[in-house]
From TrEMBL:
The protein, known as: catechol O-methyltransferase
Keywords from the named record: Catecholamine metabolism, Magnesium, Metal-binding, Methyltransferase, Neurotransmitter degradation, S-adenosyl-L-methionine, Transferase
MF annotations from Gene Ontology: catechol O-methyltransferase activity; magnesium ion binding
Xref: InterPro entries: Catechol_O-MeTrfase_euk, SAM-dependent_MTases_sf, SAM_O-MeTrfase
Gene name of the encoded protein: Comt
Chain positions recorded as Mg(2+) binding sites: D160, D188, N189
Family: Belongs to the class I-like SAM-binding methyltransferase superfamily. Cation-dependent O-methyltransferase family.
Enzyme Commission code: 2.1.1.6
Organism domain of life: Eukaryota
PROSITE patterns: SAM_OMT_I
Binding locations of substrate: K163, N189, E218
Stored Gene3D superfamilies: Vaccinia Virus protein VP39
Ligand binding (S-adenosyl-L-methionine): V61, S91, E109, D160
Amino acid sequence: GTAALIWNEIIREKVTNFIMNQSKEQRILNFVLQNAVRGDPCSVVDTIDKYCSQKEWAMNVGNEKGKILDKTVEEVNPSVALELGTYCGYSAVRISRLLKAGARLLTVEFNPEFAAIAKQMIEFAGVQDKVKLLEGPSEEIIPQLKKKYEVDTLDFVFLDHWKDRYTPDTILLQECNLLRKGSVLLADNVIFPGAPDFLNYVRKNPHFQCTNYPSHLEYMQVEDAMEKAVFLG
């Protein structure tokens, strides 16, 4: 798994970026703009999956784990959802297509280049009315959610950013009183590349009830899993 990632993420990508004079993320966006149906979020999701499974690997949640994400969002039926780690906007589009009328998703991205790509992806998918992209570090944005973004509590949180931020940001969500009894956290990549600190924190914490969903790394046959942690108050 690690060798394949090094090949895809570092060697192959750098060579292609140099030859084509554009980033992989820009190539994903261009492929969507040329091949997906504008205003159809399902078409956008399917087109990204097609590109990343056939042409260039990318760190979207992917379709296999995406089904676990879908099922969780449908069960929670959130009014206010938070995503940490927007990347190209794949999971923001995937989540928002399932949101009820009037519900909203706040998605946080640290990398300005990724944020710019995601903004175009979200608008092309036609879900910009449901999604608000917040640019900056999660540890700065989370404490602003209540006052600046009028969030009372979060019904659903999807963690898919830096793995070493999973635990501190979960603690920050609790300290800022953003979780209510029944709030659901879903964390991606808990096996590969892995988030052992997070698993240790939520599984041993009496305030959380955890469920593990074994799966595979996006677009690969590498073992991975998602962890659902329900906040018990």
